[in-house]
């Protein structure tokens, strides 16, 4: 899950991070990079509160620009919680279906607890769902980020991601130049 963020300078010089989809999630840092590092924790803290209050967790909007991606484990827990809300299954009912004690269910949907993936799969199965993992090539992610950077101001992209994308581009450019140079040298020798 990737939630879009807006970055802005506060009057004290810090960088504020806000989530258009989750107005309660706000954090800051001395730099954009530091602010984005804090953003994931801020988002999970708000989602934890939403879950305790049995509130809906909003889906991320489709926006271009800076964003914060939640880890796979936390994403699967949030999706499990959403499935429970949709089916109107409370924790007690899920515990009954799984033949678990209530604290086990509490842990499996707690975004701060390091649950085992098989427990999450079992909980989804009890709701008639199946957890599916999708692995994509990191180059696809980099290409998407480069396209995003080309369309938007570079300052809205996480500094580390932008540096990695630039380094990746330099390596490909260097590889292209070296093959052209070899071709030219081979043609001169003939």
Describe this structure in words.
The chain is of the alpha+beta class and 190 residues long. The chain has three domains: 1-69, Double Stranded RNA Binding Domain; 71-134, 434 Repressor (Amino-terminal Domain) (Orthogonal Bundle); 138-189. Helix content is 57%, strand content 12%. It is built from seven helices and five strands; from the N terminus they run ββββαβαααααα. It has helices at 32-52, 72-87, 91-98, 102-109, 117-126, 138-151, 159-189; strands spanning 2-4, 6-9, 15-19, 22-29, 67-69. The strands form two sheets. It has a three-stranded antiparallel β-sheet, with helices on one face. The protein has a two-stranded antiparallel sheet with strand order 1-5. β2 (6-9) and β3 form a beta hairpin. α2 (72-87) runs parallel beside α5 (117-126), α3 packs across α4 and α6 packs across α7 (159-189). The longest helix is centred in the last third of the chain and has 31 residues, at 159-189. The protein is globular. It starts with a strand and ends with a helix.
